[in-house]
Amino acid sequence: MRVPMLAGALAFLLLSVSLPISAQAFKPAAKSGDPGGWTAPKTADGQPDLQGVWSNLVDTPLERPEGLGAKEFYTPEEKVQREARRAQAARPRQAEPGTVADVHYDLGQFGLDRSHSKSAVSTRTSLIAGPEGKIPALLPAAQKRQADRVAAIRGHQFDGPEYRGLSERCITWPNEGPPMLSPGYNSNLQIVQGPGYVAILQEMIHDVRVIPLDGRPHATSAIRQWFGDSRGHWEGNTLVVDTTNFSGRFPFYGSSDQLHVVERFTRTAEDAILYQFTVEDPATWAKPWSAEVPWVKIEGPVFEYACQEGNYGMANVLSGARAAEKEAAAK
Q1: For residue 182, which of 60, 139, 202, 273 sits 20 to 30 Å off, Cα-Cα?
Q2: Can you give the pLDDT at residue 2?
Q3: The pLDDT of residue 256 is above 80
């Protein structure tokens, strides 16, 4: 069920939630470019205005495809050719005479087809910036950590909800970040600002990040949270958000609780935001890595993604496992 989110709920969170910055600043992932004389609007209290409903859907992969080497950008001609090939590949194949056509699910029935969503245009070959265009390899300790996680679950996948994925349990989704990347559909966010705060609402899965801008320090390291502990400040027209204190229980590409994320939000046009982030984790990668994602403004509204822990899908999975066990025991 999807129903419009109430603006009042977001406003309440913005004004009432107060969370306990490091002054460390990261350079942008790449130059944001000259907005061509366009002047960014200001809020009533004089801050750069990032408010509105935005889509972070983009057709650029996170990592650079093989064979492109250090090529960071397509030419305009290459971009057109690439989009044409993708459109051709997306068309359902016709069945040969005397055969049965492939099963094709009509995602448009649910408004999930990519053609129904507005997406930003980018000539980047990968969202990850730099000559490699790839996530750095996991350190040996991180590889072991990953293997241990898999081993702890193996053979217990259907024992109970605690062994199922957090997204399946509707607790959190990777796109909520930080860093925030498109989930592939429902790739919509709403930004609301008030004196001393910025709030970011995700349509998928409906959580709100409330980011204080008053210079308060991060919470003590003993406090760990799903989305970490975010603190923001302005550098000119760019909102810089520093996040630490992750729990480590929902790793970002294998990260640990030492994950550190710095995000940069720069409004470059009336309908565009350049979102950049740098991540580092000395327990996971040998060096930091950065990416940038163009956002495009959409009309909205943001709808509620009504995914709740204990949803019927979870009940079906577990009851199915119990039925299979009962049948096996009877044999």
Answers
A1: 139
A2: 46
A3: yes
CA–CA dist 67, 78 (Å, integer) = 15
* The pairing of beta strand 188-194 with beta strand 272-280: unpaired
Let me know: does 213 contact 241? Beta carbons within 8 Å: no
For residue 275, what are its two tokens?
């979102």
Token couple for 101: 């056509």
pLDDT of residue 215: 93
Q: What's the pTM?
A: 0.82
Burial class (CB in 10 A: 0-12, 13-18, 19+), 323: exposed
The H-or-E segment that residue 243 falls in is strand 238-244
What does DSSP say about strands 238-244 and 229-235: parallel, antiparallel, or unpaired? Answer: antiparallel
Q: Which residue has the tokens 């495009």?
A: 296
- For residue 128, give the 3-state DSSP assignment: strand
Question: Residue 71 corresponds to which tokens in the numbers above?
Answer: 């090529």
pLDDT exceeds 80 at position 149: yes
pLDDT at 10 over 50: no
Determine the Cα–Cα distance for residues 89 and 81; give it in Å rounded to an integer: 12
Strand-pairing partners, residue 55, are: 188, 296
Domain boundaries, the chain: 7-28+44-82+119-330
For the stretch 47-72, pLDDT in tens is 999 999 999 999 899 999 999 999 99
Contact (CB, 8 A) for 192 and 301? no
